[in-house]
Malto-oligosyltrehalose trehalohydrolase (Corynebacterium poyangense), 581 residues
Amino acid sequence: MTKNSVIDVWAPRPQLVELVTEDSQGERHIHPMHKSGQWWSSTVPATPGLRYGFRIDGEVVAPDPRATSLPDGPHGLGEIIDPDFSWQDHDWHGRQLPGSVIYELHVGTFSNQGTFDGVINHLDYLVDLGVTTIELMPVQPFGGNRNWGYDGVSWHAVHDGYGGPDGLRRLVNAAHLKGLAVYLDVVYNHFGPDGNYTGLFGPYALPGSMTGWGEVVNISGPDSDEVRRYILDAVKLWFEVYHIDGLRLDAVHAYDDTGAYSIMENIQNVADEVSEKSGIPRQVVAESDLNDPRLINKVEAGGYGLAAQWADDIHHALHTLVSGELHAYYADFGSPSDLKKTLLGAYKFAGDYSSFRGRTHGRPVDTSAVPPWKFITYTTTHDQTGNRARGDRPSMNLIPTQQVLKAAIIYCSPFTPMLFMGEEFGAQTPFPFFCSHTDPELNRLTKEGRYHEFARSGWDESEVPDPADPETFHSAVLDWNFTTTEQEIFNAYRQLLQLRKEYHLDRDTWRSLNVEIGDEDTPWIAFGYSDVALIANLSTQPLTVPVGGNLRYSFSEPTVSSHSTDLGPWEFALVTEPSWG
């Protein structure tokens, strides 16, 4: 990407930077560049279609960190894209987050094609399901052609193997024509290890400071102004050039963000500016392990003003109750009271002691000021599935009744629901971590790192697939040929999403939400409002719940009276006119 009408680059580290261009015959040409401050500029026009890179100190030829296309991957030359595109979404007015149903997907494994066009082929299916918004896992370039996307480099570009810049624009255009918003997952806490040349140009990362995935990005250190500009220009690019409706910020708790103004505030400001200019709302959602409502609090209340954040505590409380798993961070959960607390305030840990962390964690949500739709909830995500040793989905370990029960609790809650691709039909394909780094040593280190990580949690090495093995990737590709059971699960998911909309279960206040629970011997939960409620058995034994009503929907055949409900193991009933207390 260029700052002006000629090719230039921020490069305070090299003594000499030269422009390298490639003509249509594949021949390379060297052009001098002039340094002004920390920027080097050329006299070569930034013409769409031009292939180019930079020679650093007469040696290494590297792509522009701001390249908008890398047709040959992150080790090749960049290409300047044409900012113009034949958009047809002129009648698209955007979608606000309240009332949304988000569908998280990985472009490479969602369809047999593994491309943006492959996603387009399933848009009607998603609309029929009840989805309003698709969220793409990261699509920035990475080494090889198989990766979750969180090893991305070149944050202004789109992975060519998925269809490149035009493929992404085709998908967004097609989604908007179907009434679907498109969110993009972006990673600004680290660079991937394969094809990251930013260190040759300048201090994009903080040496010696590491996240669990790579060097910490230089957001607050010396010379960080241009790194912040690099991020903010990428944000503007996604919104303006690609018509993206929202960004999901990966793992913001790993940001080195110590300035008076958080980079998240800056990102939200860009979103607000583009929204005001275009008349189309842009959303910013954070993934955070901090349990800190400051991210979503209003600016005038001292917050960053983001649209929403992921709510892992709700997932953990529900997952432990249904699966019985209590290892690692799940050790802090496991009782109906945990689920009740998260339904009434999003966090279990809001200034409470966490045994897993060995410290007090979190801060309470002001439920009188923050609406529940600002929390994204789910039965699983790419992380909660893929960060298991085998990448096994909940649907591979639970019976259909248990899986649909979890979905019912999520979709009948007032939060913004998100599905992870394939869960809506109980997919039996795993989603393990996979990669295809171009450096064999990186693949070896990644494999060993995964083995060691899971060995600490008691997993046997034989249960952990090799991330670089092509079969690990191929095992994750969704099978769209539904079995009878998968069709039944799909029908249940679709019905639950329809009922969520029909009964306006995405209510924007906690004030009228009732939550009642049983005890450890009779674990059940009932929650809802004066007109509609969900009653659920959270155990392997039949239970009678002292809440009744008029049965509206169930995945089974419970016995519902005006004042009580008889439920079999893991059964639920959605009732109208519930009898509370």
Observations:
- The radius of gyration is 25 Å.
- Residues 392 and 430 are 5 Å apart (CA to CA).
- The chain has three domains: 6-79, 102-502, 514-576.
- The first helix runs from residue 107 to 110.
